[in-house]
Amino acid sequence: MVPARFLVPAEAGLIALDWGTSALRAFRMGAHGEVLETRHRPWGIMNLPPATASAADGEPGAAFERALQDTCGDWLAATPGLPLLACGMVGSAQGWREAKYLPTPTSLDELARGLTLVARRDGPPLHIVPGLLQQGTLPNVMRGEETQVLGVLAGLALSTDTPVLIGLPGTHSKWVLARRGRIEQFHTFMTGDVFAALRGHTILGKTMQAAAAPDDAAFARGLEVARGSDAALGLLSHIFSTRTLGLTDALAPTAQADYLSGLLIGHEVASLARAQDQTPTAPQTLVLCGEPDLCRRYAVALQTYGFAAPTIATQATATGLWQIALAAGLVVAPAPSPSHPFTAGSLAA
Q1: CA 306/CA 274 separation, integer angstroms
Q2: Given pLDDT bands bounded at 50, 70 and 90, which one contains residue 338?
């Protein structure tokens, strides 16, 4: 018997999972796509809960099932037939079951038709959203971000031919061009990964000290160096200035991390600007979706390099999972006309 404190309302319509490498976020969604409750657990695919001493793993997927039960087992027990839909690295080769990549360009309906099914011993199956593969001389992939993009597009009132540039800043930043509701092409920048590696594993981090608050002036200084008169020297030359400015007392230890962040993000946005210059039809709508302070930094960088003030998207992953569930027939409730899920305008430093 489920304890009364675990009972959930009958209006629940979907359990949606954003299942990445280091964490698992679960959304209990209502019959009209609204988020009723959100949970966050550290059970990414590389950090699953271990089996107890008396219950060794007897079948593939046992550790994933434990993570699922720990995160939302009470939701599953209270509404046994609730459909389950997941995106992210849970569909990678190291995940619960591999969901093959779909080629770009890709639409919502194609993603919905490409769901991978994972049978579970007790309860409904888990459906996993496929990733995307962009073929070319230098192939590109994404897994999880395609669902965020669909969530962003669902909240925009656009004409069919309006191109949209969607930035997803993070460990591996993605810049996605979408048009007519389709994901057409995308770029990946390992900016967050490189920042963490430089700070944690090179001499640059030896003189850095934690700051009580973001140093926006140091960040802006990094942006300006990235677009300055010696920009042709490139990132590999510029990043060493993090150390030399510190050695000459021109940059305080507490400012060096933000300066390095400005250099890296500045070079990323500069590369993006050059790519946009080569695009016949420049996107008329620019959206950022990610952690708030990181989006704030990217908004400053974009405007420094001449882009328009971006719109900031929220709850894009949950919205995208709901849209895929609708298109796949996992839920049947029509999506309402929700309030606009974005905050528009400039985010000045």
Answers
A1: 12
A2: low
pLDDT, one tens digit per residue, over 216-271 is 999 999 999 999 988 889 999 999 999 999 999 999 999 999 999 999 999 999 99
Residue with tokens 């510190």: 246
The C-alpha atoms of residue 155 and residue 338 are separated, in whole angstroms, by 8
Smallest Cα–Cα separation from 7: which of 28, 35, 25, 32? 28
pLDDT attached to residue 343 = 41
Strand order in the sheet with 106-107: 106-107, 182-189, 173-179, 164-168, 285-289, 311-313, 342-343
Residues 6+ apart with CB under 8 A from 105: 182, 183, 184, 185
Q: Are strands 35-41 and 24-30 parallel, antiparallel or unpaired?
A: antiparallel
The span from the CA of 175 to the CA of 161, in Å, is 19
The whole-number pLDDT of residue 57 equals 61
Contact 251, 259 (CB under 8 A): yes
What is the rounded CA–CA span in Å between residue 80 and residue 76? 5
Place of tokens 């209270």: 78
- Strands 12-19, 173-179: pairing kind: unpaired
Residue 12 burial class via C-beta count within 10 angstroms: exposed 0-12, middle 13-18, buried 19 and up: middle
Sign, CA torsion 211/217/223/225: negative
The predicted structure's pLDDT at residue 231: 87
CA distance linking residue 248 with residue 55, whole number of Å: 60
Average pLDDT over residues 166-176: 96
Return the SS3 of 123.
Answer: coil
Please list the residues that pair with 16 across neighbouring strands.
27, 85
Instruction: For residue 329, give the amino acid letter.
Output: G
Give the model confidence (pLDDT) of 301-315 as tens digits.
999 999 999 999 988
